[in-house]
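Item description
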Amino acid sequence: MSTINDAKNLSVILDVKVDLTVRIGSCMLPMRDVVELGAGTVLQLDQLASEPVGLYVNDKLIARGEVVVVDENFGIKITQIVGDAA
C-alpha cells in the first residue's frame, strides 16, 4: 500500500547521483603483461560478443542489455531488468 508520505520520502532521493557502469567482460593478466599494454593492444574478454552486457548501479547488477550506437556514441538497449535473484 502506497501513501503520500512514501512518495515524499522517495522524492528526497530521486536527485541523488549514482555510479552507472556497463560491463562488457573482463580478463585476468599477470602484472608483467599489464605494464606492457600500449596503443593497439587487443585484450580478449571472457564474454561472447552475442551475450548481453551488464548494467550496474553502484556495483549492483540491475539490468542486462545489448550495446548500440547512438549518434556515434555507444549506448545500451536494456533487454532485461534483473530481480533480487541476481
Residues 20 and 57 are 5 Å apart (CA to CA). The first strand starts at residue 20 and ends at 23.
